[in-house]
Write a structure and sequence with these properties.
- This protein has 473 residues and is mainly alpha-helical.
- Helices cover 81% and strands 0% of the residues.
- It contains 23 helices and no strands.
- Helix 3 (45-64) packs parallel to helix 5 (86-98), helix 14 (275-288) packs antiparallel against helix 15 and helix 15 packs antiparallel against helix 16.
- The longest helix is centred in the C-terminal third of the chain and has 35 residues, at 368-402.
Length: 473
């Protein structure tokens, strides 16, 4: 006679094979409840094993549903019913590994091997856990060094760590610490926004105070790197509210406060038009800068100060450095373009460079108003450049037309012609008139005879007419 709990177990097994895990959990739960009432002699080994297997099966279905805490609880229940049930110990070891509870997972594997020393699954799981520990410790050590100044960690080193963390994440799907390391890798590779999204998601999950502090510290570091002091200070204060002696939070908070105070003094000098004092103070603030983004802002501020003093070449140099540190810094492009327009030499080339800066700034603009303002500057600069080119073309044409008047008299018979006396000019006109009245044949003959007598005069006559043509005679 088939008992009711066996009927529910069969339905649960069928649902599990069909990957209908929610239904499988339902039937395994019914099987457990009916088995407790039907198996009166639970203390018998075969009865204990049967009830323990039901807990273990439900744990397997819960694992497939990513209900890891419920699955771990079912493994403990199975072991409590039958401590010799090695499958429950092994499943517990796997779940502990998924949660990143590696020391406890090792103990569970050793428990399996104490029951069956030849259990190959347990031996393999033990090797995997050991590998996870080694890779995790190396990754965590390297990523912690990212917080130290002047670290010599290369991008290739971070990519190797990223691959190791990805491998661990596949084995430890419920381990929050691995996700924290993933966020650190994203930030170190320049994906700050993705790192913030991941840490925000993790903060919304239930976790320990230690984990929460790590996440807030990481977010504060990311915001400092982005140049957002307000957000950074907010996260640091959250950490210090729960852990006043948190070393990383205390150190970063003090560094950020000292820098902001120094920058505020420099900004006040600038607003008061004490530009020389502002330059000195900005130099001091640069040495205290906690991130490249803040340093880019300081170079921009100093560029504005130089521009106010009319030192546009120095202003351009600071803008260049600001753009190098932050290639998306719109204000630096705008400031450089404005200073390029003020330089007196090579104005055409300078205006062309300014136009390129305005184009980049417009592409980076994030609001319609900002884009519109940049567009007006761009249009104005293009108009001025067009006027410069037009003016230069006119000057070139004038120089070209006046060039014959500037040659020496020896080389220009036309100038000699202009210096002739009135009688000579009259004689020249008479000769011209008589030449016109001649027949073509006579004119040709006369010209040939004259040229034969005086070859030099042939060139002089042609040149004189050319000069008259140019002068509009």
């Amino acid at each position: 006679m088939t008992m009711m709990h066996q009927f529910h177990k069969k339905n649960g097994d069928d649902a599990y094979r069909k990957e209908d895990y929610q239904n499988a959990i339902f039937h395994y739960t019914l099987a457990i409840e009916t088995a407790r009432s039907e198996l009166h002699d639970e203390h018998l080994p075969e009865k204990k094993h049967e009830l323990a297997s039901l807990f273990s099966n439900r744990a397997a279905a819960s694992t497939k549903m990513s209900h890891f805490h419920e699955a771990l609880h079912d493994c403990d229940c199975a072991i409590a019913v039958d401590s010799l049930y090695d499958k429950a110990h092994f499943r517990k070891a796997q779940l502990l590994t998924m949660h990143g509870m590696l020391d406890e997972a090792i103990e569970a594997c050793q428990e399996v091997l104490s029951l069956d020393s030849n259990n190959k699954q347990a031996q393999k799981e033990l090797q995997v856990i050991t590998t996870i520990q080694t890779k995790y410790n190396k990754a965590d050590d390297l990523l912690q060094r990212l917080y130290t100044p002047d670290n010599n960690i290369s991008r290739d080193d971070v990519l190797v760590v990223a691959n190791n963390i990805e491998w661990i994440a596949k084995k430890c799907v419920a381990w929050t610490d691995i996700q924290v390391l993933q966020a650190q890798v994203l930030w170190s590779l320049g994906h700050s926004q993705q790192a913030l999204e991941l840490t925000d998601k993790l903060l919304k999950q239930e976790g320990t105070t230690e984990l929460s502090s790590r996440l807030h510290n990481l977010r504060a570091t990311i915001f400092v790197a982005m140049g957002d002091s307000e957000q950074a200070i907010g996260h640091l204060r959250t950490v210090l509210a729960h852990e006043r002696d948190n070393e990383r939070a205390v150190k970063l908070f003090a560094q950020l406060r000292t820098f902001l105070e120094s920058k505020a003094v420099a900004d006040q000098y600038y607003k008061s038009k004490k530009y020389d004092d502002a330059l000195v103070q900005y130099e001091i603030a640069m040495k205290l800068s906690p991130s490249p983004n803040y340093l880019a802002k300081l170079h921009f501020n100093r560029a504005c100060t130089h521009a106010s003093l009319g030192r546009h070449d120095l202003s351009i140099a600071d803008c260049n450095e600001s753009i190098r540190l932050n290639p998306e810094y719109i204000k630096a492009y705008m400031r450089r373009a404005a200073s390029l327009r003020e330089l007196p030499m090579d104005r055409e080339a300078r205006y062309e460079s300014a136009i390129e800066d305005y184009k980049v700034a417009r592409q980076l603009s994030k609001t319609k108003r900002q884009s519109r303002e940049i567009k007006l500057k761009l249009r104005e600069t293009k108009w001025v450049l067009a006027e410069l080119l037009k003016k230069n073309n006119v000057q070139k044409m004038q120089r070209r037309h006046t060039a014959p008047m500037m040659v020496s008299p020896d080389c220009s018979p036309s100038l000699s012609y202009l210096r002739k006396s009135a009688p000579q000019l009259q004689m020249s006109k008479s000769n011209d008139a008589s030449e016109v009245t001649m027949s073509p044949r006579s004119r040709t003959s006369s010209a040939s005879s004259w040229n034969a007598i005086n070859p030099r005069s042939r060139t002089s006559s042609a040149s004189s007419w050319n000069a008259l043509d140019i002068l509009g005679a």
